[in-house]
Design goal:
single chain, alpha+beta, 10 helices, 21% strand, elongated
Length: 472
């Protein structure tokens, strides 16, 4: 019969044992081992259970989750002898614990190819069927080279048959178990770091790149996901300039904070950009975007709020559409900031199947700053004990105080977000996205009617990005 491969546990037995140890001895003549259970227990200072197997077929049957360590005789034949008919063979040109079973999920570690793979065939087979168990190699005293090669292939330690006694074996078992645990932990940590780096590169690639060349408008943004160790949240935004000179800006918020909501936010942002560049605007664009949301969301309870602004080529007026989203903040030159009208807004996307979103005309003036934000900015706690929310009125007052100090652009956004965190008494739990568009006629005149290519300072959670990326 073929050697069965036992189901490997996700946690090594040594992590759950309470002083007791189970040793599986695999050798052609287990009776030749002079170590007895009482002797081994006395040397270890704890109870030791010994199981014996004469071949790999029997070993596979006895290899259960409570086995802490395996003592393998390297002289054990892989085929013939005690192994029984049908025992699989190992190609002499390959070796290592991960052959066939050494996946990252099982916790096995990749092993180097051995030059003496034929002599270590039994060891590579045991390492393959027991990737989470500590393994001790037992060999003759005059074969130091083979013993060292066994450790290089994947065994935790080796023992010489002539020097085997209870105290040496007890110490070797405990050392092997702890080393295996350390190896698995290090392997999992390395995999976790690599996975985090890969996710970070993916998420950075999904952040928007504003398309504003030739618009004459300044741009700044701050983005901070509420999820720990994440770069993307359910909030999303984008800014593009269409060939007719109109600048379109959008900011939105998918309900929830998990990776599914972050993915949906990216889908909606990309769909918005594609639809905008295709010429859609206002109610027609939002109706189509709602169809995208309805097809892509995980459940019917998922919805998204959205605010869109289309700024005329002359920069003096804009169209505003609100889909259950807070109204933008407009600050004109020499005047206090105020919220744009929000009485004509429509419902959030995904709530009503045949909803409409009216487009309202807004006068911006000659010099202005327009701040668009998600509710994470205004839902931070303030006051003694954090019993109150900042709210839109509190945000307006905070921004006006910063404007009176002469702050604008990047400095204004940085100061505003920092003050919101300070008032909250720490990091905000909700996703936060804020973007600031501005028009300065004097700046435009200096550049002959158009602004230079925008290169906003960029960072993601304190780490630099490419110059085209808005800051996080």
């Amino acid at each position: 019969m073929p050697v069965p491969v036992p189901q490997q546990r996700s946690v090594p037995a040594a992590e759950t044992s309470h002083g007791d140890l189970t040793l599986l001895v695999i050798e052609d003549d287990p009776a030749g081992t002079t170590i007895t259970v009482p002797e081994l227990s006395a040397a270890a200072g704890t109870r030791v259970r010994i199981r014996t197997a004469r071949n790999l077929t029997e070993a596979a049957r006895l290899l259960t989750d409570d086995v802490d360590c395996i003592l393998l005789d390297l002289a054990l034949p892989l085929t013939g002898g005690g192994a029984g008919p049908g025992t699989p063979t190992v190609d002499a040109g390959t070796s290592g614990a991960g052959t066939g079973t050494g996946t990252a999920d099982s916790g096995s570690l990749p092993e180097p190819v051995s030059e003496r793979a034929g002599e270590l065939a039994a060891l590579t087979h045991v390492l393959g069927i027991a990737p989470l168990h500590a393994v001790l190699a037992l060999t003759a005293q005059d074969d130091t080279e083979l013993a060292a090669e066994a450790v290089r292939v994947g065994a935790q330690d080796y023992l010489f048959r002539g020097e085997l006694d209870a105290r040496v074996l007890s110490r070797a078992i405990r050392y092997a178990v702890e080393r295996k645990r350390a190896d698995i932990a290090q392997h999992q940590l390395t995999e976790s770091r690599l996975r985090a780096q890969e996710n970070a590169r993916l998420e950075r690639g999904l952040l928007p790149t504003p398309l504003l060349d030739g618009s004459g408008l300044s741009f700044a943004a701050r983005y901070r996901p509420g999820r720990s160790r994440a770069l993307l949240g359910g909030d999303f935004y984008d800014v593009v300039r269409t060939p007719d000179g109109t600048v379109h800006a959008m900011i939105g918020d998918v309900c929830g904070h998990g990776p599914d909501e972050a993915a949906l936010g990216v889908e909606l942002r990309i769909a918005w950009r594609a639809l905008t560049l295709a010429g859609l605007c206002g109610d027609e664009l939002l109706s189509t975007l709602q169809q995208v949301l309805e097809h892509e969301r995980q459940s019917e309870e998922i919805f998204a709020t959205l605010c869109t602004v289309d700024i005329a080529p002359d920069g003096r007026r804009a169209g505003l559409c609100l889909a259950g989203h807070p109204a933008p903040l407009l600050a004109r030159h020499g005047l206090p900031a105020r919220l744009l009208p929000y009485q004509d807004g429509g419902p959030a996307l995904g709530l009503l199947p045949r909803a409409r979103w009216p487009r309202r005309q807004v006068e911006l003036g000659g010099a202005w700053s327009l701040m668009m934000y998600t509710d994470g900015l205004i839902e931070g706690r303030v006051g003694t004990g954090g019993s109150e929310r900042l709210g839109q009125d509190g945000m307006v007052a905070m921004v006006n105080s910063r404007l009176e100090q002469g702050l604008a652009g990047e400095e204004l956004l940085e100061a505003a977000v920092a003050e919101v965190r300070e008032l909250n008494g720490g990091e905000l739990t909700d996703d936060v996205a804020v973007l600031l568009l501005g028009r300065d006629p004097e700046r435009i005149r200096r550049w002959g009617g158009s602004a230079p290519r925008s290169h906003p300072a960029s960072s993601v959670a304190g780490r630099p990005l490419g110059v085209q990326r808005p800051p996080l």
